[in-house]
Structures are given as structure tokens and as C-alpha cells.
Amino acid sequence: PAYRLGDQLRALNRDYKAAAIQFYLPRYGPQGEPTCGMTWHVSPLAMHDWTTEEDTLKKLCLWPPDSFVNVWIVDQMVLNTIGYARALGDTAGIGGIVLVKSVVGNRAGLSSPFDWGRTAVHEMGHVFSLLHPFEGGCVGTTPQTCATEGDEICDTPPQRQPAFGCPALTTNTCTELPLDQPDPVDNFMGYVDDSCMVRFTPEQILRMRLYLQGTGAALISPTNQQRRGWSSSPDSACGGVLALPKPATPSLRFWREGSLWHLESPGPIRWEVWDAGGRKITEGTERSFDEQALPVGLYVLRVHTPAGLYTIRGYRL
Prior knowledge:
Layout: H1 3-16, E1 47-48, H2 54-58, E2 71-74, E3 76-77, E4 83-86, E5 96-100, H3 118-127, H4 202-214, H5 222-228, H6 234-243, E6 253-257, E7 260-264, E8 270-275, E9 280-284, E10 288-290, E11 298-305, E12 308-316
Parallel strand pairs: 1-3, 2-5
Antiparallel strand pairs: 4-5, 6-7, 7-10, 8-9, 8-11, 11-12
Helix pairs in contact: 1-6
């Protein structure tokens, strides 16, 4: 249900309040167009394989990362994954968060143990450069090494491995010097149940804020705020978009079998393939076509149906 998107925004702001970091929806999109800050896309990536499809998913809809934090929500992910993220300045991929829809929200409509919206809280920490406390296991155990090993944070004692469920706060899997401390099993950057992760540490907060002031400077700048018109009221700002029963059942279905594309629609269809330079390569009205004859490259498939135009972007055919 759409109300969970607003609930998720409030959950992020609840848990980042102590860090003096807050999140808003933009009123104006990449080209200055009025926006709700949310878009909906029909795609064949219902079961998202993040090991091979990360860029394909993100290029379906990508707003400039220096002006927006992109969050993609999918039906399901392989390997029982519920979320993953890349930092704003990640050079190996596109920064932002990917979540499965079952963990998006805050209590209402969600099921334990991922029902407080804290998968997004955890992943947003990665966007702002935080690592897991169990990064590297029992390393960074001294004052001389804690800032350069493990999660590179000195007030999160290292963990030998991730903890799950709701472990005792006395859990201790590593030995630190000069003072041994319990594992930070209640930290937002761990893997415990939502109800049992409750805090960032002061040094984690400092790291996020410094990262935003450096790598994220354009994102948080007054100029970007003025251009985007941030809104803290998602339900009213998104009005009719949130009221729609999304995602609606599409009037177009499409899937691939090897190099063969299949298109299914209740009415007549006409498809076109365009290259990245804006040139139409081929077109047709058949219910399937073979991409084998096309030169290797990045293309856009446009499908005209009685219900409207569908644009399928970012596929390397």
C-alpha cells in the first residue's frame, strides 16, 4: 500500500534525528518539473538478481545522485536479500538503496522482524559511508588500529560475525585493548531484528555528517534545496500519486527467452528500438522479436499500446 512510503520517510527521520540528518521528498525533479518524488515503473525485474541486474534496475529510473538519494523498491530479490546499498561516492556502481517492498514502511502493514523501517535506516548508513561493525571480524581491536581497520570507527567494538534476532547486550565475540567491551549488537549497522537495533554511535554520526559535508556537499546545499523544494509532508505533497493503487496491473507484459523478446497486450501493439544516440534502429508489430540481428549496444525499447506508451530503458540487448 502506498501509505507505507510515507511511513518509511518518517521512520528514517525518526532514527536519523539524533544525527541531525533528515530526509525530504523533492517537489521538483531533475529537469525542474513538478514531482511527487516517486515514480512507478513496470519491469521484468520482479525477482531482482542483484548479482547481475544492479545497473539494469537502476537505469530504469535514475535521478542525478548529486541532487537526490535514489531508492529503488522491488517485489523480491534473489538469495533472500531484503536490501543493499552503495555509498554516494562509490566508483564501482551507482549510489543509492535497493529494498524489497515487504520491508518498506513503519509497523503498519509489515511483519516482524523487519517491521520498523530499519532496513532502509541500515542501508542509508551505507549510503553515507558507514560499514558493518563486523567488517573484517576481530580487527581494529586497539586504539592504534580501530580507525583504520574493520568498520574504521573506534566507538563500535568489533564483532567476529554478524548477530541475528535479538541477542543479549552482553554478547562479546572479540577482545579489545586496553578495555574489552561487548559487541554493538543494538547498532543500526548490524543484522539484528528491527526492534533490537536502536542507535548510531557518536563517531558513526560524525563520520556520516563529515561525509555529507564533503562527498554529499552538493546534495545538502542550500542551492539544491532551493531547486528541489524539499517537502517533509509526503502524504499531502504526493496527493493523487499516493492515492493510486500501485503498482497497477499493466496492460503490457514482456519477457525474454535468450535473445527473443515476447510482448503481450490485449490490443494491437507497435514497437520501436532506438539506440543511445536517438536513432530508430528497427520497428514492428509482431508479438515477439529477436535482438540477435542488432549490433551490440545500449538500446531503448518503446512499445505503443491502446493503454499508452511503455518505455523499457537500460537494457543491453
